[in-house]
Each structure stands twice: as C-alpha cells, then as structure tokens.
Design goal:
Elements: H1 2-26, H2 30-36, H3 38-46, H4 49-70, H5 75-96, H6 100-104, H7 110-131
C-alpha cells in the first residue's frame, strides 16, 4: 500500500506541474518568446481553440484524477482517461497541424511522448487499482 501512496503523490505533483505549464503557456508574451524561440511562439499563436481546450482538459482533469486517486475513488481512472484524450488531441494538433517537427526535429517530440506515456500509465494504473479494490 505504501507504493500506492507514493505513486499517487507523484502523479499529483506531476499534474500540478502540468497545471503550471498550462498557465505559463496561456499567459505567455508571444512577442517576447518569439525573440528566443520563434517556432514555438508561432505554434502557440496559431493554436486553435480546440487544442487550447484539449490542453486545459488534459491538465485540469488530470489533476482531478490524481486527487481522486489519493482519495481512493474509482472515478480516478475515468478522469485520467479523459486527460489522456486531451493529451492526444493537443499533441496530435501540435505535431500534425504544424511543421514543428520539420523545424525543430524529432527531439521536440520526446517530452510530449513522455507526457503521453505518463497519462497512459496514470489511466492504466488507476484502472488496475479500481479492479483490485484499492479504489472504491
């Protein structure tokens, strides 16, 4: 059970960092960002509402999932699954709807792939814990 609490706490910390990243990105001064990273600034500037919404859903619903996990609620896995869907939509647009990979290279996909892997792990872990009775 100790491992459960460690994983749940780490997932909450991870999701809170995602919340901070969202707030920083949504409030970024794109003119300032363009001075140091014009490709990313343009990607942010051209990001459609649905992708911003997917980003918001990914981080905020993921945090709700982590809180539900800590409260040992079965709904955690559903919240994590919704968050995973948000991650897929957001990064799907980022990499399919822009030329970010062509301009920045495959290295720009490594962290988003890690984010997607954590979102998938969160969903599967919470689902397994719901199935084994840890979550009620």
């Amino acid at each position: 059970m100790r491992t459960f609490w460690i994983i749940a706490a780490l997932l909450l910390a991870w999701n809170l960092m995602g919340d901070m990243a969202y707030l920083m990105q949504v409030s970024a001064d794109l003119d300032e960002l363009a001075k140091t990273d014009p490709v990313t600034a343009e990607a942010f500037r051209s990001m459609p509402t649905f992708a911003w919404s997917a980003f918001a859903i990914a981080v905020w619903v993921g945090t709700a999932g982590a809180i539900a996990l800590l409260l040992r609620r079965k709904v955690a896995w559903v919240l994590f699954a919704v968050s995973l869907a948000g991650v897929i939509v957001q990064f799907g647009w980022t990499f399919l709807g822009t030329d970010l990979l062509a301009q920045k290279g495959f290295g720009s996909a490594i962290f988003p792939l890690f984010i997607a892997a954590v979102a998938l792990f969160s969903t599967l872990y919470a689902r397994r814990k719901a199935a084994d009775g840890t979550l009620r």
